[in-house]
Predict the structure of Transcriptional regulator.
Amino acid sequence: MEKYKLGDKVFDCPVGLASNAINGKWKLQILNLLSQEECMRYGNLKRRIEDVSEKMLIQHLRELEQDGLIERKLYPEVPPRVEYALTEVGRQIIPVIVALKQWGQLFRI
Amino acid sequence: MEKYKLGDKVFDCPVGLASNAINGKWKLQILNLLSQEECMRYGNLKRRIEDVSEKMLIQHLRELEQDGLIERKLYPEVPPRVEYALTEVGRQIIPVIVALKQWGQLFRI
DNA sequence: TTCGGTACTTACTTTTTAGTAAAAATTGTT
DNA sequence: AACAATTTTTACTAAAAAGTAAGTACCGAA
């Protein structure tokens, strides 16, 4: 039987794997912003995602990084500058975001 | 500012709403199965989704029903027969599933 | 009158996720 | 020496999600 692997997690179906990778209260919103902007700084992400706490934002960024969807670039300046961007694998998830956004727009009031 | 509403939950962006609707350990897998099969019985879903417990399956089915993505048809027979199927709104999320599945296949081993 | 088959339901526990708020690290500027 | 700006980190608490396992309801057939 075919298997799918992300990090050290193994799944029996691609939907299960994908579901696991994007599961998180703010992950899709993070990916959505990064899909529109080439790269974004931590502080900028924080401002753009209303209500996200610093803890959750950094936690989700770490997980997305570990799963290979985004990369973190640290510029050794003072004050520090950190930029996040989609990786190649991350860019390949953009069609999902686009379709999802379109679906969500059905619920506009 | 535009708003998006699902049930009694209001969101500022369509991605946030969509994210909320599909957030759940097995929801995308349920939607995936229903997208391929026209309709499916409870017991069949349970067999097809490995490891899901009866509690979680029914809970997710209820939430998807409340959010208007699926509908539940009870046939008053003995033993009882219950069929689940995508609604029109549910069918409109199929492109998301398709894109997600394609993305997940990148991780085949 | 007990059993089979289907679809749940309930009570309880454990695990995971999220929220809050304060602190840390860095170093050039005042 | 204190401050500013930015990106975390930490400790603690609270809430939500998930797991486990047993129980319920229906009714016709054996």
About this structure: Chain B touches chain A through 42 residues (CB under 8 Å). The longest strand of chain B covers residues 70-75. Residues 4-107 of chain B form a domain with the Arc Repressor Mutant, subunit A fold (CATH 1.10.10.10).
